[in-house]
Design brief:
The protein has 21 helices and 10 strands. It has 605 residues and is an alpha/beta fold. The protein starts with a helix and ends with a helix. One of its GO terms (molecular function) is ATPase-coupled lipid transmembrane transporter activity. It comes from Dorea longicatena.
Length: 605
């Protein structure tokens, strides 16, 4: 039943593994510490009672025996502090293990997810979910959970003590506590109970946009688009502000009522004491009432502290539950299913059979009943406007996603029936956005085949036209690139990516805008590298620069997720259709650039 009511707390204990008992021990010790922390107040009251009694009797020596109460107060205070220290040691050890396990389990799970998941979830958002939420849970288990346990145990002891001395004064102290609970429920319940989920989502979005903004600062400065580029980041900040300020405004009246009620206990306590005193009979009753009033005056601050601890601990509990839910959402992402009886591809052919695919969260089909075939050793090029489905088609071959309709076959076998490692061995990629690790150039290229020798890496680098890059670097292949090392241009990054693909020597090559960031010199070098990379291989090539695909065996023109034209370069030009129009525009752009340059030179002369 507890798991149904508090699944997040149950999940926390699961993450703690064999150290979950430390969390339980920490909570028990924190509860005992809380109870012991109230005993010194009772001892102080006994000391005051003995001193007042001695003063009334006119013999101060009668208060000599009150010294042992003072020592008991010190002893219980020290014992309470010690138990709380041990409780925190236990809770911290359990919290560290919980946070570590959360991060490990999340990272182990993430590496099993298809690559398409990462194109839909920015790195900033994933870092926030895993790192920050694990840290938030760690803080809750280490500090807030022991305090919450103490805050839960304390009311029981408080209620007992409130009625031990004078039930009438006890009710006067208890009534503000009951009213404060009402205000606390107004802050933590209702619509505010769901606040934390929206707040954390807004925080993740703001974190993601901040990362993207910082990464894009060089482009922003070059094109002087500061205000425009700040738009998404500013919108994320405004969304976060809406949640943060909205919650603060929503809580202002309940929080004011909470604080006024707790701190206004004496408004009831003093008049009640005066009324009771007027009805007292004899000096003894008056003295007893005065002593009881002193006790409740000493004890009221404990009640205030208790309720404040409950308020802050409840807020942290909401945050921790939300953190666990977000980690759990990542863990609930399903890896692509693999066949129990995997098959081996017969050759390097690729076939799309009536394939349809729709991205999660959208209604429009990215691919709509697409069919085509790439025979082994042939090259096919995909062209079309942005968003027409080219990259989506390419991403289905290595199972970045699974099709919803139809099938993608590699070597005559549905990719869903090929083991993941076997499928990856069949395909080499060169993406538009090439990522290099913060490591040596040697290890960056060898990532495609870790067991490759240095000579094999050098041979692949040479075939990818990387010799000039290696020669000019201070340590050649052993030069560190990326953060803290040497930076390469976009075109040079693409050539390193081609070297990886050549080293892998896979029978199927997927080139997605491989010349996108290349200048004229790098594009020429990349074209030379293509010749070595694609010789005798099955190639699927995506390009906007039509000059790079003229020699493809077949060119498919995509539009709105469908194949609208098919043929080789000359056939498509002769059809005078979409491709012919694209080719004409491409030729015009080249001519325009040259003509513009010549015109400017003539005018200058």
């Amino acid at each position: 039943m507890n798991k149904k009511k508090n699944p997040e707390l149950s999940r926390m204990f699961e993450f703690a593994g064999n150290r979950h008992w430390l969390t339980i021990a920490g909570c028990i010790l924190a509860g005992l510490s809380t109870i012991l922390s109230m005993i010194p107040f009772v001892c102080i009251w006994f000391v005051i009672r003995d001193i007042l009694h001695a003063m009334v009797q006119g013999n101060i020596s009668l208060a000599a025996s009150s010294g042992h109460y003072a020592w008991l107060a010190v002893a219980f205070s020290m014992l309470s502090i010690f138990l709380y220290f041990v409780a925190l040691c236990c809770s911290h050890l359990a919290a560290f293990r919980t946070a570590t396990n959360m991060k490990k389990e999340a990272m182990h799970h993430i590496v099993t997810l298809p690559l398409g998941y990462f194109s839909q979830n920015a790195s900033g958002r994933l870092r926030k979910i895993i790192d920050d939420n694990a840290g938030l849970t760690e803080g809750f288990l280490a500090h807030q959970l022991p305090d919450l346990t103490g805050a839960v145990v304390m009311p029981v002891a408080v209620i007992i003590l409130l009625f031990v001395f004078d039930w009438r004064l006890g009710i006067c102290c208890l009534l503000p506590l009951v009213i404060s609970v009402f205000f606390l429920k107004k802050m933590m319940g209702g619509d505010n109970a769901d606040f934390m989920s929206g707040y954390m989502t807004a925080l993740e979005t703001m974190n993601k946009e901040a990362v993207e903004f910082v990464r894009g600062i060089p482009v922003v400065k070059v094109f002087q688009q500061t205000v425009y580029s700040f738009k998404n980041f500013h919108a994320a900040i405004e969304e976060y502000k809406k949640y943060a300020s909205g919650y603060a405004i929503c809580c202002r009246i309940p929080l004011t009522g909470f604080n006024v009620t707790l701190n206004g206990t004496f408004i009831l306590l003093i008049p009640a004491a005066v009324l009771i005193l007027t009805g007292a009979s004899g000096q003894a009753d008056s003295q007893k009432l005065f002593l009881d009033f002193l006790f409740y005056s000493l004890f009221t601050p404990i009640c205030t502290t208790m309720m404040n601890r409950i308020m802050f601990a409840s807020e942290q509990l909401m945050a921790a539950k939300s953190a666990i839910s977000r980690i759990e959402a990542v863990l609930q992402e399903k890896p692509l299913e693999e066949s129990n009886t995997p098959k081996q591809p017969k050759d390097a052919s690729v076939v799309f059979q009536d394939v349809s695919f729709t991205y999660q969260g959208t209604e429009k089909k990215a691919l709509d009943h697409v069919s085509f075939e790439i025979p082994s050793g042939k090259t096919i090029a995909l062209v079309g406007a942005s968003g027409s489905g080219k990259s989506t088609a390419a991403s289905l071959i290595p199972r970045f996603y699974d099709v919803q309709e139809g099938a993608v076959l590699v070597g005559g076998v549905d990719v869903r029936e090929i083991a993941k490692n076997d499928l990856m061995e069949q395909i080499a990629f060169v993406f538009q956005n090439t990522r290099l690790f913060n490591d040596t150039l040697l290890e960056n290229i060898r990532a495609a085949r870790p067991e490759a020798t240095r000579d094999e890496v050098l041979k692949a680098a040479g075939a990818a036209q990387c010799k000039d890059i290696i020669d000019r670097l201070p340590n050649g292949l052993d030069t560190v690139v990326g953060n803290g090392g040497t930076y390469l241009s976009g075109g040079e990054n693409q050539r390193i990516a081609l070297a990886r693909a050549i080293l892998k020597d896979a029978p199927i090559i997927v080139l997605d805008e491989a010349t996108a960031f290349a200048d004229a010199e790098n594009e020429h070098q990349i074209q030379l590298a293509f010749e070595g990379l694609t010789r005798g291989k099955t190639v699927l090539m995506i390009a906007h620069r039509l000059s790079t695909i003229q020699n493809a065996d077949t060119i498919l023109v995509f539009g709105d997720g469908k194949i609208v034209e098919c043929g080789n370069h000359q056939e498509l030009v002769n059809q005078n259709g979409i491709y012919a129009s694209m080719w004409k525009e491409y030729q015009t752009q080249i001519t325009w650039k040259v003509g513009k340059s010549v015109g400017k030179e003539k005018k200058h002369d």
